[in-house]
Amino acid sequence: MVVCTDDVCNASEMAARICSGDIAVYEQFVRNQWATAVRACWLVLHSTEDAEEAAQDAFVSLYRARGQLKNPDKLRIWFYRILLNSARQRWRSRPRGLPSPEQDAQDPRNQIDQADTRIMVRDALRMLSQPEKTALVLCFFCGLTDREASLATGWPLGTYKWRLAKARRQLLKQLQENGCQTSEISL
Asked: How many structural domains are present in the chain?
């Protein structure tokens, strides 16, 4: 069985093959998306262990429901919706009254703690509400378009854009208050 590579198979064909049950292509999809999925979950959950569990749950859910996707071109949006739901479920299952884990977690690509600016951004992200944090993660860390992100979250496009704009303003304000040179950051 041939595994898709950038030269052999485009995203649409890869999605169609995943939906039809091609396990080799699905495994490649998981390998290609793992670090991004864990990072997106970590930015929402602030715990490496929870982020990895949420990402794993999302990939399992995607595989189990792969035959239900009617339009393989929507696989990316569908996956991020599953991923967000998995992260939200993990967030809700945390015991009440306990603070969120304050682990000094490592990024899957070992880049999160390389600079003071990144630490300040991480701390500022913690100050945002879950919806605002979700909007930023989908836009800047997952690279989704506004339309894709609104579909992934289930929010109307205007609501997504409003939350993203609000998150940007709050994040920049928090960074400025902490002495970060916001000219270094493009939001």
From this structure: 2
